[in-house]
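Posting for a labmate who doesn't have an account.
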Amino acid sequence: MLKYETILIDSDDMTLEVNRSLNPAQFLYGEPADNLIHNCLEIIQYQTKVWGDLEEQALSEGEIIYVDGSSRCLQGKRMSGYAAVDGKNMQTIEKGKLPSIWSAQTCELYALKKALEYLAHKKGTIYTDSRYAFGVVHTFGKIWEERGLLNSRGKGLVHEGLILEILEALKLPEEIAIVHIKGHQKGVTPEIRGNNLADKEAKDAAENGAERVMLILTPNEKKLEIPKFSEAEKNELNKIGGEQAESGKWKLPDGRQLLNKILARKILEDMHQKTHWGTQALCDHFLRNYGCIGIFGVAKQVTEKCITCQRINKKVMRKTTLEGRELALRPFQSIQVDFTELPQVQRWKYLLVITHWVEAVPTTKASANMVSKTLLEQIIPRYGMVNRIDSDRGTHFTSKVLQQIIQSLGIKWELHTPWHPQSSGRVERMNQTLKRTLTKLIVETQMSWVQCLPLALLRIRTQPRSDLGVSPYEMMFGLPFLTTQHENATYEVGEMSVKRYVNTIAKTLENLRLKGIIPQTTPLDFKIHNVHPGEWVLVKTWKEQSLTPQWEGPFQVLLTTEAAIRTKERGWIHASRIKGPVDEPKDWTITSEPGDTKLTLKRGLGGNELGRPKWSKKHTQDHT
């Protein structure tokens, strides 16, 4: 009865409910018919049986076989195996080690298949303690076969290849019965002894046997059509040792069949849908049984097309040359600014850092007022007009008042790409250098960082740079800083004329500035991405959470530059934080709030904070 109830519940077009409005006695009226129209039990058995000779009860004659599969972790390593035992003499018929990635259910199915093959043209009974294997041959197998090997949700079966082989192997025995028994029982009955022996042998095979290389994730070879090749492709197949058999199939000397890219893509797509393996794993698994020229490129296209893998996997991107800035021909022509927070000393809590000739000004607040005051009272009067300033997008730099002041002075202020700290790398490195130098001075002098700041700036300015071999001080003033009383200057002062002194300093400065141009990186004149407006991309999340996708989207691209792209939902994003282009989404998401009279739909999944309210559902639209 449980079997028939399972069949009814698993049917797509039928639901099992209790109706309390009907009285069963209403159906017990009238005279019974003379002849039965049909036998209900016979019809049910006929429609649910995978094979006509398959029985659930043990046969009175023939072979008796106990099968079992094992998959368990030993010392942190998973081991899988199977075994088939003769129930009459309690001897092992066959056992072996299986790939470690196989589950216990897969091992049980494989053991059942081997037992069916052993009973070809014979009568016999097979005992198994797996309800899953028992259900496949007695209940689910027939339903899945009629559905086209799809489950109730319309998705492909996990063990599709192995289930097909079992359904075919059921036709091999003359008479066959597959019986379910409880596993891990204690007793001396033949069923208990046989099942326990099969369990023991399966575990032993998993631990000590030689692993067998199996392929159960690709479609059955019988379902593959004979691939067609062009003359150019046939020449390539001959070069790698391929030969055409009488059946028309091309095979390698080791027996593997050669496929064209069309059939190979079908196999790889089916395999990737079930496993979500990467490119190399798909190729390795495919090449165990087949061969195909250019298989790596096909596998890469399959993995890149999978939106699930794209949203979760890390981005594989070659390290490209970072974009540089316009060459600076004079000091403070182009500067970079940033605020860094330090432990509060009296009323000083922040440090406004300006580089590359480092200037650091203590401030009480990280505000636009402090930035404009420092520029107007210290930097511009001391070093002249600045041509360009770049910074991050903090509110103290994007203030409308500050930007109006900068615009009136004719200064160009550029803001960095969001979520790309490398753009502020110059000033961020200087922040670290300042903090490290201040820490050493505080330890040595026991003074506050405000008191140690002038000496810290002196140390940084007079330290020779590793890429140039000279210090910023020498590049600024044209002569080295005398740090000890034992050092002598390389120039003469008192005895030379003013004109000669000025010419010497000018020549020294010119040579140093030419030397300083060498390590500067010029701006890029090429793109570091291949995304164009109108295409769809994924965007890396700013807050990573465990067991959640690290990439959001897809989002449609509106604008692009050499190093960044812009979307409606995320604004400007650096190329290192995008992945794509990806396929245009076909899903629609409800974005309107509950109670709205207007229903708003949005294409794509979007991000968690933008895309879906908690109550929304995802809908698939089949038409435009």
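Reply:
Got it, the structure tokens are right above this. DSSP finds 18 helices and 23 strands in the chain.
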